Amino acid sequence: MTHRNAPLSETGRLRLACCIVEDGWPLRRAAERFNVSVTTAQRWAQRYRAHGPAGMRDHSSRPHYQPRRVCRRTQRRVVGLRITHQWGPARIAYHLRHQHLSVSTVGKILQRYGCPPLTWIDKATGARLRAQPTPVRYEHDTPGSLVHVDIKKQGRIPDGGGHRMVGRAQGVRNRGRSASGGGYHYIHNAVDDHSRLAYVEVLSDERKDTAAGFWTRAKAWFASQGITVKRVLTDNGSCYRSKAFNKALKDTHITHKYTRPYTYAAAVTEGLRRSVDGDAGYSGLITKNPEHPAWDTHWITNHLYDLDELHAGLDAHGFMPAPSWRRTRRKNPAGLGRNCAIFETARVWAYQEARRIRLRHEHPTPADTADLGRAITAHVAALNADYTEPLPDSEAACIARSITSWITTESRLWIQSSTATQATFTTIQSARGRKGGRKGGPASGATRRRIRNEKLEKL
Fold first, then answer.
1. Looking at the DSSP assignment, which residues form a beta bridge with residue 203?
2. Which of 80, 127, 381, 413 has its CA 20 to 30 A from that of 295?
3. Cα gap 391→338, rounded to integer Å
């Protein structure tokens, strides 16, 4: 392919060759006329004699012989691993490491044979689901109609390099000598949805006061650019849900919008798990074996389903979970493995036992701690004995010690006095009761269920 400063294009080469071959110009005269060397003029004249006007096109610069080229057998093996196992270039290169293949070489082989990216194919059948996606640009109609606010964390690299480049010991020494030290830079940014105009500051943390101060300065800067902000979109981070940040928005009459949480997607995933009677411990990793003889695939539509379509189909067959399924999910430890199931079951029982033992004295005594440890150990041993293949006694004892250590050192139920614990419990319950039916804490279960169902219907 010719570059912009090339003296000869395909038309120029044809004119040069015609002057030499058909008009009889000497090579030196033609080379001087077209401002090229004599060798170049002779090359295009010979191509014209051999191939005619078609010989003026560019030929491939690939050499005819490549001694280090990957053999055809290895290429077929790379493609076969991609089709049968659906592995990426990095994993295929590691699997064929005895062939000394780099990740880039494997990627070029897959591209040469037309293998689509893994995100474009069905994980179970390997069938291609979509072609190359076309970018879709969305924007609001006017500047300031919506401003996206977010925070990006980037690690501080000390002078002399971090531990990933120079090793752990030298990296720690560099961090101690560096003026910036360790930690992170918090990049606060605000981007206008229509104009893509951005305001960015690098700050020391992501606390509520810092986020509120950043927005005050960002709004003033947008105003200096002639943009009046009407709505702000943030994620569900604690600094953006704080009173300080929302007060900064409320004082200027700006509507605060939050990104949609993943509750809806999690409920749909749980419905898919129930539809195939999958293991509750692997509800986020639903897979199928395309080589299983009993599996039959039916293509109903040629486009990807969205959450609303999946929700409608699962709800019609009664597979969608109730709105309270996230609260009751941990009460059923099925599918979590023996150690996790024992831990979850014994943990809930241990809190009840600790509350009963704490009623003996105002402050816990060493005898109370010993009694709690013995009770938890006995309960864990009983749960472990129910399995046909129980865990080793040492592992069951470790589970019991972990639960006992947490309750006796971290739990407010055990650390505080009985009077303080009861007062804290009363204060929490009173605060919940004062909220009544207002937003953020309705009192009755029927009201909570009604509000939750209304939110699900809006999604």
1. 186
2. 80
3. 7
What are the residues facing 199 on neighbouring strands?
190
Long-range contacts of 419-425 (CB under 8 A, 24+ apart): 419/362, 421/358
Rounded CA gap, 351 and 413, in Å?
Answer: 8
Measure Cα distances from 395 to 84, 342, 345, 380, 407 in Å.
39, 11, 16, 10, 19
pTM value is 0.40
Euclidean distance between CA atoms 151 and 180, whole angstroms: 20
3-state secondary structure 100-155: CCCHHHHHHHHHHCCCCCHHHECCCCCCECCCCCCCCCCCCCCCCCCEEEEEEEEE
Report pLDDT digits (tens) over 313-349: 888 888 888 776 665 555 555 445 677 778 888 988 9
* 448 or 109, greater pLDDT: 109
| Cross-strand pairs, 232 | 147, 256
The structure tokens listed for 14 are 């044809």
